[in-house]
Structures are given as C-alpha cells and as structure tokens.
Please model this.
Amino acid sequence: MRPLFRDILITLALAVVIFFLLHITLQSFVVVESCMEPNFYEGERLLVNKVVYHFHDPGRGDVIILHPPFDPELVYIKRIIALPGDTVEVKDGAVYVNGTKLDEPYIKEPPAYTFPLTEIPEDEYFVLGDNRNNANDSHRGWTVPRENIVGKAWLSFWPLSEWGVVHHYPLEEQLEGTTGVD
Model:
C-alpha cells in the first residue's frame, strides 16, 4: 500500500509543479475589439509567452500583449513597430521607421492619419494595431514602457479554424529590403 501512496503523492506533486510552471510561463488572452484585424478577430483566444522577453528584448514586428500606460488595468494586443531610440513617422498612408518606409502586408488598410517624426524614448516601444484606422495605439501619442509588456503572442487556439502559431513579421527584413524612397 505504501508504494501506491508514494506514487500518488509524486504524481500530485509533479502535477502541481507543472501547473505552476505553465501558469508562470503562459497566459491565455481573449482578443477584444477589432484593432488587430485582419490577423486577429474579436473573441479569438491566444496563448501568450510571458517569459520570452527575459531572454531577449522585444523586436520590431512582434505581436505583444501589454498594459497601456494610461490604464494598467486594461490589456491590449498590438504589433511593435519601433524600438527605443528609433524614429517613427506616419505620412502619405505609410509608416516610416528610421526614415525607411515599411512594407506592411499584414495591415487591413493604410493609415489615414499622420504622425510627426518622433524619437522613441529609452525603454519605450511604439506599437500599432494592424487595423490602423480603428486602433487606440501609439499614433495617439503614447508609447509602451518595457515593464508594461506582458508577453509575446504565441499560439491561437480558438476558434479551431484559427488554430496555429502566431505569425510575427520581422520588420528588420522590411527595413533592409526597402530603400526609404516612395
């Protein structure tokens, strides 16, 4: 009887450890509103990797979950466009990072607004929604402090038709592959 009791205790202990490891490293997130269409839709459920940025810094093109600086109770999903020290500008229906026009195949439509040339402060990130004209994001004058980033979107798991790994567009390739000339 003792070996069975010991096996049950070991199994329970392992289950508790695995549960807490998953809870510390992953979090589920439900997309609210339409700011990331056409890539993420209202009601879609994602798994977020909460530890990845302990090993490397966030990068341009990463889809992140964040707390906006004006209300730490809110949770947003956005795409990182510019890093600390970068310059960003939105004009003529295009986004420019460090003077180079981005090729953005993932957006719903080009931005119908302008944003003046701005340097991103240290430890801050410039984020935009993929539905550029229907998103509360950095074009409204706020950036995201590093400590407000919850994690990197990793896996879409609901609805089942959207199941799959989240695609992060490497904006570094977009910057290298363009000339900055319209």
Observations:
- The two ends are 77 Å apart (CA to CA).
- The mean pLDDT is 87.
